[in-house]
Amino acid sequence: MAIDCGLDVVIVTYASEAHIRQCLDSLFRHRPSCEMRVLLVDNDSPDSTLDVVRGDYSEVLVIAREHNDGFAVANNAALRATTAPFVLVLNPDTEIEAGTLDHLMSVMANEQSIGVLGCRLLTADGTLDHASKRSFPSPMTAAKYFLLKAIGRSGSAYVRPDVDENSIADVDAINGAFMLVRARAMDEVGLFDEKYWMYGEDLDWCARFHSAGWRVVYDGTVVAHHLKGGSTGGRRPMRLNYHFHRSMEIFYLDHVSSGHRLADAIVSMGIWLRFALTSVSHSVANATRNRPMAKKPAVDGAVD
């Protein structure tokens, strides 16, 4: 079914050479029935991301930034240039499946109260990306989520276990790796909050859409793929780990805090204690992984 609308796709890249071909190839191979334009913002990549895009994807509108000012700033640079009635914010480590975009845009066209729509995101091993459907984190749900994650389990209300992954439901938030947004709603709500350098800006945006009266919906009947960490290199380096926890604190103070100073101080201390613990854990893991292996002793006169 042809959809009488247009779609602008916004992609932010940084050192994305390993993934951007698969992302763009899948996007153009499974493009929607309506007109589609792709705007790509590169955050001063140190690799050949820009060469790949400029050399092989001439229809992509490229915005090359001279500095890496973060995910929110870069997205906003492209979002300001969008003109279509629908906008897809898409990570470079994602791949689109056939029919996904047409289905979701049809849902948006028929459900005028939806401001933001996401789909079932599958990780590299075929399991659901937990951030596809989320509740806004409270100190208790966040603590439970991280504790369960530490022991290899899940079940916190933060990841909405009550919503079947194949179903359709209103949720608090979806994943910033794939967000289909109604431009009219975005004009009312505003762009990403640039206080968030990286992480948390999708939660904040969804909270602001809710506050403005727009629905945020998860549609698990269609799929896209998200190689989590593909745009950040997997395990978070120290700088990204810092921004992850800083974003947690910002979101809590902006949307969760009751204004009680002691409670805010306790929550902030908990966030930065977790930052310290994860930083030490990551440093130990990196040191162990990079430690040279001891040479095996020669046996029966053999040498290495």
UniProtKB/TrEMBL annotation:
It comes from the Bacteria. InterPro entries: Glyco_trans_2-like (IPR001173), Nucleotide-diphossugar_trans (IPR029044). Residues 9-131 form the Glycosyltransferase 2-like domain. It holds the Pfam family Glycos_transf_2. PANTHER family: RHAMNOSYLTRANSFERASE WBBL. This is Glycosyltransferase family 2 protein. It comes from Agromyces larvae.
